[in-house]
Specification:
Blueprint: H1 3-9, E1 12-14, E2 21-23, H2 24-27, H3 50-65, H4 72-91, E3 98-108, E4 128-135, E5 139-149
Helix pairs in contact: 3-4
GO molecular function, one term: dynein intermediate chain binding
Biased composition (Polar residues): 8-25
GO biological process, one term: microtubule-based movement
């Protein structure tokens, strides 16, 4: 049998996903692929909306904590509730390819000072954060939202 004759027979291979058989002749044809749509940076309209997120934080903190007094037993549940509510509203903004982290610190207002520091390693051109502070006579609350762009 010559090389020309053996090539004309072709062989079939099974396709594991569909169970169909595909000939090698069909498999060797290059498939047309769509152009690459990979973006390394967000477009101007798709950047993290820090001002809008800050408005959300202010609204949630004011509505939730306006008439509250500090209670140790309630503080953990209240901070989870605030974080979940802020996270849900930020998710509704539909910032494409952004993941967000919400951090809430709730403490008793005793008249002493408090320092809040958050560190993160990120791309300063794409990633961003915003935070807001709520205080009344009994408690203080700091809520920070970090927005990280997925490459």
């Amino acid at each position: 049998m010559s090389a020309v004759e053996s090539a004309s027979f072709g062989s079939t291979l099974g396709d594991a996903t569909t169970g169909r058989t595909v000939s090698q002749d069909q498999e060797s044809e290059p498939a047309l692929l769509p152009p690459s749509t990979y973006q390394i940076r967000p477009s101007l309209s798709d950047t993290f909306r820090a001002n809008r997120v800050k408005e959300i934080i202010q609204t949630v903190l004011t509505e939730t904590l306006q008439d509250k007094t500090y209670d140790t037993a309630e503080a953990a549940e209240l901070s989870k509730q605030i974080a979940d509510q802020v996270s849900s509203l930020v998710r509704d903004l539909n910032m494409r390819r952004y993941k967000h982290v919400v951090q809430v610190t709730l403490g008793q207002q005793l008249g002493s000072g408090c320092r809040y520091i958050a560190r993160c390693r990120w791309d300063a051109e794409c990633d961003n954060q915003t935070s807001d502070v709520f205080t009344n006579a009994s408690l203080f609350c700091i809520c920070t939202v970090f927005g990280v762009y997925l490459y």
